[in-house]
Structure formats: structure tokens, C-alpha cells
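Encode chain A's predicted structure.
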Amino acid sequence: MGEQSFELTDPTVESQVINLRGTGADVLLIVATQKQTVQALRKARDLDWHPLSLIAFPAASMTRTYIPAGIDASKGAVSSSVFTDPSDPELQGDADVKAYIAWMDKYYPGGDKFDGLQVAAYVEGQLMVEMLKRCGKDLSRKCVMGQATSLKDVRVAMLRPGITVGTAPDNYNLFKKLQMLTFDGKHLIPTGAPIAAE
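Encoded structure for chain A:
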């Protein structure tokens, strides 16, 4: 077992991956941006090291991480998400994905439509609209906070099947479940039903 850190300004994370391989670990947890995740997956492949790769949400993208790293380096990588991946070819006909792409084309045409953080912002925007609708004409702090902390099983576009939003006065965490996903070389395949996120 080992641990390696990096700075965002580091040109590569290759030496860190070499050091981790030397530990004999059979699991590689990558908590990094897309750039470093691509580098780590490639280097592990180049070293003929095949640990189970666990990828942090911001970098778990087919088009921004797995394909650039190489299918052979990425296949079998495991991640989790609450959001639909708009880059999945199988979902291009999905009503939520079509509406999201149309919204991005209209309001943020220069934005990266396949970036998971853009999807997160889209979901959060819908949740804000929902809260404001629930407030009606009373936009006082008390009313807004009351609505924000009493969401129950709210479903908005671009959430994965089985994922809803819920909050409580003592728990602001929006998501109580998440979907584990495995990259099969073409798609992010759900691994079972959503699991508890807390």
C-alpha cells in the first residue's frame, strides 16, 4: 500500500505511478483532474501493471479521460456518479441529454458539453429553480433556507436513473445515493442498483 501526491503544475505523474506500482498494490485510486488521470492510466498500462483503477468523479469521463488514455488502459476502470454522461453514444437520443445539449448550445455555446462539471451546474440550476418556485413570492432568507433544507426525492433532468435529491435541516448533502459505473471500453455500465452515498 502506498500514497503519492502531485501538484497541478507537475508536467506528469509518471514517477508517482512508478512508485505506486512498486508497492505491489492491486488497486489504484486516482483522485485527480482529467489530465493526471489520463497520464496515470497510460503509465500503468506502459508498466504492464493492471490494478483495479478507481477514478474520482470529476475525471470519470469517456471522452475526456478514458478514450484519450486509451481503451486498453481504461477498460475496467470504476467510478461513481449521480449524473448522466452526455458523451455516451447510447444516450444521444435521450430526452434529458437532448434538452441539456440544446440548453448548452443556447446559453453556453463555448462550454464543454461533455464536462461533468457542466452537467452538475445544469442540475444545480434546475434545483435552484425548483426551490424558488416552492418559495413563491416569499424570497426571504428563512423561506429559501426552509425550502433548500426540505427537499425530498426531487428528480431533475440529467440525474441517473434511481437518483434523487433530498436535504434536511441537519443534512445539506443533496445526494443520498450514487451509481457505481464500470467503463467497458465503449460505455459507462451501471454496476448494480444505486448505493448509499453516506
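The chain has seven helices and six strands.
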